[in-house]
Design goal:
- The protein is α+β, with helices and mostly antiparallel strands.
- It has two domains: 300 residues, Thrombin, subunit H (Beta Barrel), CATH 2.40.10.120; 261 residues, no CATH class.
- It has 24 helices and 20 strands.
- Strands 1, 2, 3, 4, 5, 6, 7, 8, 9, 10 and 11 form an eleven-stranded antiparallel sheet that branches.
- The longest helix is centred in the C-terminal third of the chain and has 42 residues.
């Protein structure tokens, strides 16, 4: 009787995922389309995902290695975020041509700038391959044998998927911790050129202060074009390449949005962990996030001090500072959100119910097993995170290790060295060296300090003395000496103090931390495979969505404001008026172009929309994702979440979890009034 009551309680307590929550696989769109249409969506399932005809998926790309982009013309024109294209914009910038500060607009095809190493990938198709991946696996096999079976079968599936067709690549992904497997087949294009980008005072308006916040007034977009060979196939960069003609591109809607409107995000969310236990959440919110926030605060303070003193240094470190800052601020919101939602406590309550239900089943003892494994892993993992955030952030050590690896592999190093020194300012690195090693010394217990570190610190007497000596003696502070290195200089590099420091810490990590972390993590992953299946068995009526893993997903909801605190309500749309209210020529992040001030002063633009909020479940990787209306037309570009909802990677709160999108009308406004590149409109198709 007790078992029956527990099972009944589980059913009553389980709540199916709400429409606003979830990152759903497009191939399974039929499972969601009824709910989407009930919420206002007007298209059919095959308009969203199909392998037999052109559909919306064919207008979406994985941009680079961690963003999303969308096609908006039959000539390969592509929109993504400014921060997604920031690295490319920065690499094309110099004091003479400061595209970060002034923006960039190609006024003809021959002015579009190539970007070495930048790729975009279209999903050709996805399919479940669980049975094929596990073929040959049987009862009694060890985990190592299971992994071998999966590896061999996956390689065969990938080889078969890419055997025909230029630019094809494929990979098999484990979903639900290895309870399900999907094959994803992509077509990758390597010739992607920069077409346009607003000044950073528009594309990054508000900087770190406004990042993750609402109201937001950031014109976070950049424009690229995909090129192909004469047969429309992927090809390396060549002046002979022509604009790519996609199977599908988005029509653009200029009707705008209002509260309650249906919205739909089609993108490549990076990583979530919605189904972990309280132990993982507690480590994240109470240990990992606070420690990393403190370390990154120190680094950012140092960078900003020097960036504020020199335009050249600002250009050199803009992209670096942005990369450090993005996670730094996200972690702050995540930590607060976990605490505010009492996520640890709720997870523990759920686990207690699960444990009662699991008694006498194969899931009995799983929660306790995970708790024990986390207790073993966490001290080692914290030491790894400190190593990663401190020692590995020192640029001198980075270039020393990179050059050694290149020379060992007999590859050309000059381009890497040129790029490194183009964006290197030694005083920043020296100050970060001191700050990070002091933090490592004060926060790490003696057990987790490498012997090399303890001996060096004792020898020098202080971190400052160590810093002065290593930067005075290392050859990696001098560009010409680095360029002069050859494969015959490997021994000299081994004796360089910067390389020796890198090597000593890396060996400590590799021999001391990594074996324990890898061993325990493999046991944790194995336990989660069972725990994930256990959760599905415990709540059979619940619709589970797989954690994000940078594969194409669907999220949908509606335009909606929110209340972050008592007595406060944020409406879901921001306007140009708000930019003018924030404008401050004395603060770099709020110093808008004079042209924007002049346009506003002329009148008639008070209500020019800039950004809007919606309830779509997004995360990193969704940056640049198209925001689509009920008719399937482009109304915006996703670029952020609100600070109060950044814990949605772990737990979704419908009251405050909001994604922030650039209103497509502000992008068009900038093309016309700031870039004066209205010719681009001629290749777009407007739905209304």
């Amino acid at each position: 009787m007790k078992k029956i009551l527990i099972a009944l309680l589980a059913v009553l307590l389980a709540v199916p995922a709400q429409a606003d929550e979830g990152m759903w696989l497009p191939v399974l769109i039929n499972q969601r389309i009824k709910d989407m249409r009930a919420k206002g969506f007007k298209l059919k399932a095959e308009d969203v995902y199909s392998v037999n005809k052109a559909c919306l998926k064919d207008a979406v790309v994985l941009f680079g290695s961690g963003c999303t982009g969308e096609l908006v013309s039959g000539e390969g024109l592509l929109f993504t975020n400014h921060h997604c294209g920031y690295g490319q914009i920065q690499r094309h910038s110099s004091v003479e041509h400061d595209y970060l500060k002034d923006g960039f607009w190609a006024m003809s095809r021959d002015q579009e700038l190539p970007n070495k190493g930048l790729t975009v990938s279209f999903l050709e198709y996805m399919e479940e391959v669980t049975d094929a991946v596990l073929k040959g696996y049987g009862e009694g096999m060890t985990e190592r044998q299971r992994d071998s079976v999966i590896k061999v079968n996956s390689q065969a599936l990938v080889a078969d998927a890419v055997k025909e067709g230029k630019g094809l690549r494929a990979n098999v992904e484990a979903l639900f911790y290895g309870n399900q497997y999907f094959l994803f087949v992509f077509r990758t294009f390597k010739d992607v050129r920069l077409v346009g980008a607003p000044p950073s005072s528009i594309g990054k308006f508000g900087g770190d202060t406004d990042n993750w916040m609402w109201p937001r007034h950031t014109g976070d977009f950049s424009i690229f074009r995909i090129y192909a060979d004469k047969d429309n196939n992927p090809a390396d960069y060549s002046p002979e390449n022509v604009p790519y003609h996609p199977k599908k591109f988005f029509k653009i809607s200029t009707k705008g949005v209002k509260e309650g409107d249906f919205t739909f995000v089609y993108g490549c969310p990076g990583s979530t962990k919605e189904y972990v236990t309280s132990d993982e959440v507690e480590y994240t919110g109470s240990v990992s996030d606070p420690k990393k926030i403190d370390l990154r605060t120190k680094r950012l303070d140092i960078m900003k001090k020097y960036m504020g003193q020199s335009q050249a240094v600002r250009i050199q470190y803009s992209s670096k500072a942005a990369n450090v800052s993005n996670a730094w601020k996200k972690w702050q919101g995540e930590e607060k959100g976990i605490r505010r939602m009492k996520t640890v406590e709720k997870k523990k309550e759920y686990q207690e119910r699960f444990k009662e239900w699991a008694k006498g089943t194969r899931y009995d003892g799983l929660v306790e097993k995970l708790e024990t494994l986390y207790q073993k892993r966490n001290p080692y993992f914290l030491a790894y995170e400190y190593y990663n955030e401190t020692v590995r952030s020192i640029e001198l050590l980075q270039i020393a290790s990179t050059v050694m690896m290149i020379i060992k592999n007999k590859e050309a190093k000059d381009a890497v060295a040129e790029q490194f020194f183009k964006d290197y300012y030694q005083p920043i690195d020296e100050e970060i060296f001191v700050a990070m090693l002091k933090a490592f010394d004060s926060e790490m217990s003696d057990e987790f300090k490498p012997q090399y570190f303890k001996e060096k610190l004792k020898s020098y007497g202080s971190v400052e003395a160590w810093q002065k000596d290593i930067y005075a003696k290392s050859l990696f502070t001098d560009k010409e000496r680095v360029l002069a290195l050859t494969k015959d200089d490997a021994e000299a590099i081994k004796n360089d103090p910067a390389y020796q420091m890198y090597d000593a810490f890396y060996k400590w990590y590799f021999n001391t931390l990594r074996p324990v972390i890898n061993d325990v993590n493999s046991q944790i992953r194995l336990a989660y495979r069972d725990y994930m299946q256990g959760q599905m068995d415990y709540e059979p009526q619940k619709q589970f969505y797989p954690d994000a893993n940078l594969t194409l997903r669907i999220a949908y909801g509606n335009v909606k404001g929110y209340s972050p605190a008592d007595g406060v309500y944020y409406s879901p749309v921001s306007t140009l008026k708000g930019i003018i209210e924030k404008d401050n020529p004395n603060i770099f992040d709020y110093n808008i172009p004079q042209a924007l001030r002049d346009i506003y002063a002329e009148g008639g633009h008070d209500d020019q929309p800039v950004c809007f909020l919606a309830t779509n479940h997004t995360t990193g990787g969704n940056s640049g994702s198209p925001i689509i209306n009920a008719d399937g037309n482009l109304i915006g570009i996703n670029f952020d979440r609100v600070w109060e909802g950044t814990m949605s990677d772990i737990v979704y709160d419908p009251s405050v979890c909001r994604n922030i999108s650039l209103d497509i009308r502000y992008l068009l406004f900038n093309i016309e009034h700031i870039g004066h590149a209205e010719y681009l409109f001629n290749e777009m198709v407007f739905a209304d």
